[in-house]
């Protein structure tokens, strides 16, 4: 099962959706680069607030596979061997 994590960037600060500060950077570009390096992708842009013009919220998300839900192998099967098939084909040719 795939689980999505969400973050948003406001200015130089990265927040969780609940509003907790994850990290604060000196520059907005540095924060953006860090998010991309950590595997976060841009999901949405919230337009600037009319009260605080120029402050956009950038929403990011990242897919995380849950370890407990990984598919398990139920049975083993022998792989197809093309050399055995070629040998059998030679025996049946006329």
Largest sheet: 5 strands, antiparallel
Distance between the termini: 53 Å
User: Topology as H/E string?
Assistant: EEEHEEH
Q: Overall 3D geometry?
A: elongated
- Proportion of helical residues: 10-25%
Descriptive key words:
94 residues, alpha+beta, 2 helices, 5 strands, elongated
Characterise the protein shown here.
The chain is of the alpha+beta class. It is built from 2 helices and 5 strands; from the N terminus they run βββαββα. It has a 5-stranded antiparallel sheet with strand order 3-2-1-5-4, covered by helices on one side. The chain starts with a strand and ends with a helix. The model has no long low-confidence stretch (mean pLDDT 81).
In short:
This protein is α+β, with helices and mostly antiparallel strands and 94 residues long. It has helices spanning 28-37, 82-92; strands at 2-10, 13-16, 21-24, 41-46, 57-65.
Topology at a glance:
Elements: E1 2-10, E2 13-16, E3 21-24, H1 28-37, E4 41-46, E5 57-65, H2 82-92
Antiparallel strand pairs: 1-2, 1-5, 2-3, 4-5
